[in-house]
## 1
Amino acid sequence: MNVTSLLRYSAAGIVVALCAACSGGGSGSTIAPSTSGVGPEYRDGIAWINGRPITAARPNPSGFLNAASVLAPAAKPKSKYFDYIINDYGSYATIFNYPTSNKQIGTVNDVGGQGCTNVLYGYGKKIVWIVAGPEQISEYQVPNKLLKTLAVNSNDFASSCAMDSQGDLAVGILAGPDAGDIAVFKKGAGKPTYFPSTSPGEFFDGYDPKGNLFFDGHATSSGDVRLVELPKGGKQGITITTSDVLGFPGSVQWDGKYMTVLDQYTNIIHQYTISGTKATLKGTVTLQGASDCAQSWIAAGVVYCGDASNNDGEVYRYPKGGNALATLTGNFDEPLGTTAAEK
């Protein structure tokens, strides 16, 4: 597969973000998408380019796609909600208060990648977690007050996060010495305990109500998707076989009824029931007009999309899907993540 552009290096200089939107150097400048491109090299199931692992945004050969027209949200009472569209590693998160408005109301600086909060789905209670650097993840009191920063092992690249109902924080490792493993911070504090898995690199993760953690990544050199479960109380991840085929790893999240996995190639959310080591497809939700939802977040009746290729944030009905309710407008730098919380 040809790749149309490269995106900026992270602050630590160890990761290149890859998608079709735009490209920036350390100064934050951008250049037009390349039409020639180069192909990613797969080593041990992780896509690399120029010797560096890519982020969780998929390669997109179609080039930059213009953002959809902005649709004003329906008139509702003043919102207590805060929605975060999290940009490229080492950049910033853009804050919104949809459904009050679809316009940016603030920023969290020096973060980038993915985020999560202290609920399985819906709006978190007063806090959010955001990846803050290759080896760090930070907790914020909404909307943007820094509470603390936690660290994974040296030279590990933190990709995703999820928090269970007991307050344990799971951070996925995309690349580095512990690639594919899950680092779990007990009660969201201290030093992590590492759990190995069958995946060579972890992209997205999410807990179910029983405390089982599910996460995805590439399985083989061809880029096939592998879904993995770390059972509650388990010591290592086990492979889960899906009844259908996924094109590229995407968000993994409980939606109140099903465990869901977003396919980044199709921008379709797959809803599964899971028994033993088998995931059975029960339904799908199509995010029409999305180009590359790197991470999505299922909230109350809506799902937010951080769209790496459209370079915006989008809001869809959930579980109906279809066309976007709104396109969030503000400053973006290759959105890779999203989450939402209330005061």
Note: Residues 202 and 334 are 20 Å apart (CA to CA).
## 2
Amino acid sequence: MTAKATLRSAGFLALVAIIVIISVFPLYYAVVTSFKSGAALFEVDYLPAALDWSNYRAVFREQPFGRNILNSVMVATGVVLAGLALSVTASFALARIPFRGRTLLLMTLLAVAMFPQVAVLSGLFELVRTLGLYNSLGSLGLSYMIFTLPFTTWVLTAFMRDLPGELEEAAIMDGARPLTIVVRVFLPLMGPALAATGLLAFIAAWNEFLFALTFTLTHDQRTVPVAIALISGASQYELPWGQVMAASVAVTVPLVLMVLVFQRRIVAGLTTGAIKG
């Protein structure tokens, strides 16, 4: 290896190290801070002096944080399951069935996904109130579908378009109906795409704040982001940073581990529809 190639490789590794440090350090320091309390919160330490679990105990004792986590899990899981079920059938129609206006419909889906949440907040609030879903998890499931369904449909359409047409033709010759083709022929081949879109939609629903703050009122109906934002101290001027960090770590670390476990499927699912061999 020449000196120029060695220098280029060292520069690349240094750049990767810098990116990793910048990305990981905030989470690491949040973990360190979550084990501090009192005046120690304002001391800069890069290693925890002791593992003080009082902040974690306080988070679950002083508010229904366990219930908030369960709410987030139920809403995000329901949104992912319903979104994938609708997206698979919609992507089959958009990718395999020629009809007038198909491209315009895809562009409309992309435009809806790019719309800011605040632009539809007032109208969606009226819809939620009319349906009697205010202060319930149903309102969150309905509203979260607005920004997850276009994304999952768009990604699965790109994946579905690249599946071999011979499989569909053979199934049609055997007398299979469209739903049978989707469920028994295409669905088993869409594992990477389903894992990628499902996980990203789960993270988006898990982290959503604006709709959760607007459509829920009581503590037992709130999700994790709102519960963390509403953590308060002994007075309105005091914010218990240790508890905030503990709550943030408790709900972030499982997501990070989930992404690390499924990272290969995420990359495969997002790139399969964009690469043609």
Note: The first helix runs from residue 3 to 34.
## 3
Amino acid sequence: MYALAIHGGAGALPRTQFSREREQEYRQSLARALSAGQTLLERGQSALDAVEAAVTALEDDPLFNAGCGAVLCEDGSVELDAAIMSGSDLRAGAVAGVRHVRNPIQLARRVLEKSQHVFLVGDGAERFAAEVGCERVPNDYFITQYRSEQLQAQRRATPVLDEPPLGTVGAVARDMRGRLAAATSTGGMAGKRRGRVGDSPVIGAGTYADDRSCAVSTTGHGEWFLRTVQAYDIAARVTYGGYSLSDAINEAITLRLTRLGATGGLIAVNSGGEIVMQYNTPAMFRACLRSGEPATIEIY
């Protein structure tokens, strides 16, 4: 039995500001990404392969805040972060502040497999990308008209355009051998200072996987997810505290984060194939499936 869940960000998204046509576009994008991962799981490939494929599809989709279509830094450029982790052996790869790698999640996978390190940033990550043959693109490849207009609106302190203020992407999976994996990719915060790194690429904060407990990918208020080491906190509750996956996540999202005034959500899967997707915001783009069951795609 395999299981797969993906997310495309959580945030404030009133239904009145989201047209039916736009909603359908997002649902189709989530379906494509889910299918990319499912195809590999059905072939018997690893959970690691599946989460990389799903996140790659979301990075290539300008609707989301990862890869093409990512939010802009304060100077109008794009810096990208990503991480991937294998739950069977706790191997992980992460990158931050990359500016020319088309698919940061693929570079994170290369760090996991071809480097003695776990986390590479900036120019060092770019040089490694060139060494291992990751596709590289000009920085303006990532920039869309909407994101440029979004930054201008932010500079004017006027309301951001009538579009979803969210978009970090992630995936978690259990493969047919019971192995777990997680992956997360993001452009970060709109208008962020150059060099800012959020929770997404930080192992234990935005991304974590351990076959003994669960695989987790988060999205939301990155600074708080960093401070609370959110992804590992959930895994630790399951491993050492005896929590069920749903109870651990409810404790984290409904109680801990909400009490701190933090907003966001996460997706998780355990070794039994149980999937939990929870958030404390008005909406979270999310989708999931398990072998033999139909896919579920939701926004609200």
Note: Helices lie at 20-42, 47-59, 104-114, 122-132, 145-155, 222-227, 230-241, 245-260.
